[in-house]
Amino acid sequence: MSIFLNVLASSEELAPLVLPAPVFPLIAAVVFTTLAFVTWSFRDVANRQERVPSKAGDAHGTGH
Prior knowledge:
Elements: H1 2-11, H2 23-41
């Protein structure tokens, strides 16, 4: 069994990363926080303008 573990340990090569591993979740957190802020900033866009009926008959609610 020790020969198998020695072969397994010797054949494992570590791939170098561009940044340290804890930095990647921090980047993801910053991106998601930025996207959440952008989404939050557009929360009331639909209510800023007065609703205008698109056709003359839409305003009285007959449903035809």
